[in-house]
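Batch manifest, entry 17 of 40.
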Amino acid sequence: MTNFVSRAAAAALFVSMATAASAADLGRPVKAPEPYPQTIAAYGFSWTGAYVGANIGANLAHGVAGDSSGVIGGLQAGYLWQTGQFVYGLEADVSLGNNSKSTSFSDAVLGGVSTQRDRIDWNTSYRGRLGYAFDRFLVYGTGGLALANIESRFSNTNNGVTVTDKNTNFRAGWSLGAGLEYAITNNVTVRGEYLHNGFGHYNVNYGGNGVSVRQNIDENLLRVGVNYKF
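Output type: structure tokens
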């Protein structure tokens, strides 16, 4: 009987202590859980950083000789900043290719047949970029300065004699375009891009023939590329 009373007393003491501890816990403030971010962008991909890459595509040009096309390839490098979902930055690129077109016509001034040939062998641009990011997907516009090396060749054949003159111009113009870019990893992105480069009107003088041609060159670049983001 004595052992039973002792065990009952010990059990009662344990229950009373547990009850007191629970009551003490009820009086303490409970820390609220950390709130979720207001937007998913807080956990998303960031476009901020420097990048370098390569591209390949087509150059569709228009000049005095007519429309022409050629394959181009090149390199690009730049830096982007992201604020919220807006992305902005700077990019420079250079492309190499051989885009040329020739046209022949009866020359009422010099007589015989004259041939005009235009060729663009490289171009470069320095542009700003402004876009809107959907996490890893970026839609952007771009614009800035375009430069190109444009060669114009004029020849005339009259009475069996052919006279040829070449004029090479380093031309400055403007560039405007748009593109789509997607980050397939945190460091590698792929994109498709369209650029229109315009170089305006200018006179090409062929000294040996005493001929001046009013030239107008513009080009449309369609290209795909891959970038490595640091």
